[in-house]
Amino acid sequence: MKGASIWREKNCQSCHQLYGLGGYMGPDLTNIMSSKAENNARTFIKYGTGKMPNLHLNNEEVDNLVAYLSWIDKTGKSEVNDSNIHWTGSYIIK
Amino acid sequence: MRYKVYLIFSLVMLQVALLCGVLSSYSFLYPETLKNIVPFQQLRPMHVSAALFWIISAAVTSLLVHSNHIAVIKTANKRLINTAAGIWALTITVIFAYYTMNKYGGREYWEFPPWLGIPLLLSWILLMVGYGIYWLNLKNKKPLYQIMWATGILFFLLTFIEQNIWHIAWIRQSYIREVTMQWKANGSMVGAWNQMIYGTSLYMMVKMSGDKSIAENKKVYAFYFLSLSNLMFNWGHHIYNVPTASWVRHISYFISMTEWLFLISMIQSFKLKTSEYNKHKHLICYKFIIASEVWLFLNLLLAIMMSIPAINKYTHGTHITVAHAMGTTIGINTMILLGSIGYICKIDTASVKVKKAVTTGYNIAQVSLLIFWLCLVVAGLTKGYRSRVLQIKDFQTMMTPIYPFLKLFAVAGIGLLAGMGMIIYNYLKQLYSKRLHHE
Ligand code: HEM
Predict the structure, then answer these.
(1) What is the secondary structure of B35-85 as a DSSP string?
(2) Confidence of residue B207 (pLDDT cuts 50, 70, 90)
(3) Is residue B53 part of a domain?
(4) Which of B23, B33, B34, B44 best tests the A interface by mutation, with the highest count of A CBs <10 A?
(5) Cα B154 to Cα B301: distance, rounded to the nearest angstrom
(6) pLDDT tens by residue, B54-74
(7) What is the pTM of this model?
(8) How far is B49 from B32, CA to CA, in rounded Å?
(9) Which atom of ligand 1 is nearest to the CA of B412?
(10) Both ends of chain B: CA-CA distance in Å?
(11) Which residue in A10, A13, A90 is closest to B253 by CB distance?
């Protein structure tokens, strides 16, 4: 996965979480691709915002990151539903 | 051995961690103005790496100095250990050079380009050989701190290797597999340095009270095995929400709950300990041990709660995790290590002026840390409530009421920097001018 190494090299993890793990300045991105339109992520990554830096990525890097986030999204849900909670307090997922 | 140099290096790392921590908290709060001057994505890795290097370097130096007191480490082993320390310090310097050039590539907490893990690994292996030969020849291995120090050094190696296992393509093929391995390693690594540091705390208690039985009774051995099983099996609480095999979750939930035994034991021995504390509380080194126990109690309570998946649902991915991470690394690890370094540089024999300054620094640090920690807990609870119960999806709307707590947190961070800075400055002065304990 090319996107994975860009994710590490640009240190997205210092501000974002995947499955709740990472830095806390920005939102969790585990399910960003299924919850919002693809262009949303693309725009943020390409241009940044007042808060998120513009990391000056080229189109190919943006494509790879979007593909990486889509790949992550298919692995599961970051937030556990109430229906997954067992009476013992543990989770039953899947 | 060049213990003094290692201690100075460790204290400098602590100072860097504190400075970068304060800067990163402001860059978190005011990115619009600060994102180009002190970028959060640069300062966070600097902060966290400096913090981890402070803890690991100081933990190893402490146990080496204390070991040398028990039986002199032989020249050949000293040479190995000195080489190890040289490689270690040099690599860390290169790591910070890469951070200043905005070059990353590693994983959470170890964000430097991954090839720099090779010299770190080499350094650790040399240390292990040097220390290992000494340890095997050691006549009296009965005191638990001896076992804990060796356990810590061994498990750090294992977890460090695990931490880098993502380089194998097969691990990366499945994100679930990769994230599980990564957090298994991170969780167990904390257990490894805790073995080294709690070993030192135990050692100091024995030395200050003169009572050897503290480290050689059935109860402490039993708790050692309990902590070892926690080291090996409780890491799953980092990844409860990841859809791994269910047994990972159930086992770590079960093992984490054995931590209630530590908590109950702490409450039971409370009376005994207070009388012990009163006897030694005039000693600065002992004050740090007392502080670490209070912080252990508070953080254990928080950690146990977070380890119940049904509660973790609301705390995971919030500032509660940060409260847990910094509460333990500052409140427990840093306090014990500052006590240990104080003991090594004989701070209790320093001039009244120095002792006063360290005590003032200590008091400022404790009060600031309490505010700091409470702000993170409240910020985390608020985030958990707003994002999981109220289900507010827009990130900035969800975060708005949290910022005031984080502002207070950042102010308390300055207090922590000031208080700890006073301690560090006086320790450095003392290290510079005095011979070490056991030299
Ligand atoms: C001995 C001193 C310190 C140690 C050992 C320490 C350790 C840590 C650790 C381990 C983390 C990672 C937390 C996580 O991933 O959940 C962290 C994050 C952080 N620390 Fe510290 N810290 C120290 C002092 C400070 C100070 C004085 C400040 C100033 C306010 C500070 C501000 C921060 C910030 C802003 C983060 C990032 C949290 C986020 O991603 O939102 N730290 N620290």
Answers:
(1) TTTS-HHHHHHHHHHHHHHHHHHHHHHHHHHHHHHHSPPPHHHHHHHHHHH
(2) confident
(3) no
(4) B44
(5) 28
(6) 999 999 999 999 988 877 788
(7) 0.94
(8) 25
(9) 30
(10) 9
(11) A90
For B183, the closest chain A residue by CA position comes to A21
CATH number, residue A37: 1.10.760.10
ipTM: 0.92
DSSP reduced 3-state for B107? strand
In angstroms, the CA B300 to CA B307 distance is 10
| Residues within 8 A of B (CB atoms), A 11-70 only | 11-15, 17-28, 35, 50-53
Answer whether residue A79 is part of any domain. Answer: yes
The answer to whether residue A61 sits within a structural domain is: yes
Q: How far is CA B175 from the centre of its chain?
A: 28
Residue B274: predicted pLDDT: 75
- A41 domain residue, yes or no: yes
DSSP conformational letter for B101: T
Kindly tell me the sign of the dihedral angle through the C-alpha atoms of B333, B335, B336, B340. Answer: positive
- Angle, to 10 degrees, between the axis of helix B144-163 and the axis of helix B218-233? 0
* Tally of domains in chain A: 1
Can you tell me the mean pLDDT for B242-258? Answer: 84
Tokens describing residue B374? 């409470």
Query: Is B48 domain-assigned?
Result: no
Q: Is residue A93 included in any domain, yes or no?
A: no
Tell me the pLDDT tens digit for each residue of B399-437: 999 999 999 999 999 999 999 999 999 999 998 887 776
